[in-house]
């Protein structure tokens, strides 16, 4: 359109041709800059997608590791509860048997009765469990509350 306007203005044909050539050159230069910008954007996109793919692999490995550790923890807690039940039964048996009280010292009997009187796990858990989390009180987030999004796993 601009080329047509220049032709309609009149003047020498030579000047009009020079103006049209300058417009074409400006347009060509703008196209070259846009092409370079597009190339840089595609290269940056490729780098970012490669980084995203690497991070997704790390996330998948981390999710798998969390799942494995949670299974280990559940098994360990189940074993601990099983052992606590066994010990509780032994303590109850010792406290009920008349020969048990005679064979034990007065101090041992008082310790056993104290343990038998309350939940055994609460008495032994803080000293036996090695954990960075203080498990002697209720945490706002327990291990069973951990959830993560698996929607991206199929990518």
UniProtKB/TrEMBL annotation:
<keyword id="KW-0175">Coiled coil</keyword>
<dbReference type="GO" id="GO:0032154">
    <property type="term" value="C:cleavage furrow"/>
</dbReference>
<dbReference type="GO" id="GO:0051256">
    <property type="term" value="P:mitotic spindle midzone assembly"/>
</dbReference>
<dbReference type="GO" id="GO:0000281">
    <property type="term" value="P:mitotic cytokinesis"/>
</dbReference>
<protein>
    <submittedName>
        <fullName>RGAP1 protein</fullName>
    </submittedName>
</protein>
<dbReference type="GO" id="GO:0030496">
    <property type="term" value="C:midbody"/>
</dbReference>
<dbReference type="GO" id="GO:0005096">
    <property type="term" value="F:GTPase activator activity"/>
</dbReference>
<dbReference type="GO" id="GO:0007266">
    <property type="term" value="P:Rho protein signal transduction"/>
</dbReference>
<feature type="coiled-coil region">
    <location>
        <begin position="38"/>
        <end position="97"/>
    </location>
</feature>
<dbReference type="GO" id="GO:0051233">
    <property type="term" value="C:spindle midzone"/>
</dbReference>
<dbReference type="GO" id="GO:0097149">
    <property type="term" value="C:centralspindlin complex"/>
</dbReference>
<dbReference type="GO" id="GO:0005634">
    <property type="term" value="C:nucleus"/>
</dbReference>
């Amino acid at each position: 359109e601009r080329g047509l306007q220049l032709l309609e203005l009149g003047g020498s044909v030579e000047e009009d041709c020079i103006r049209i050539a300058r417009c074409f050159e400006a347009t060509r230069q703008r196209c070259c800059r846009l092409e370079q910008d597009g190339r840089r954007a595609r290269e940056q996109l490729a780098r970012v997608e490669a980084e995203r793919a690497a991070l997704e692999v790390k996330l998948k490995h981390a999710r798998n590791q969390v799942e494995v550790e949670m299974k280990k923890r559940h098994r360990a807690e189940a074993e601990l509860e099983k052992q606590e039940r066994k010990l509780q039964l032994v303590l109850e048996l010792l406290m009920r048997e008349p020969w048990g009280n005679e064979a034990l010292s007065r101090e041992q009997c008082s310790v056993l009765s104290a343990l038998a009187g309350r939940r055994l796990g609460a008495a032994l858990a803080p000293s036996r469990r090695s954990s960075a989390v203080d498990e002697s009180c209720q945490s706002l987030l327990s291990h069973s509350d951990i959830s993560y999004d698996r929607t991206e796993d199929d990518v």
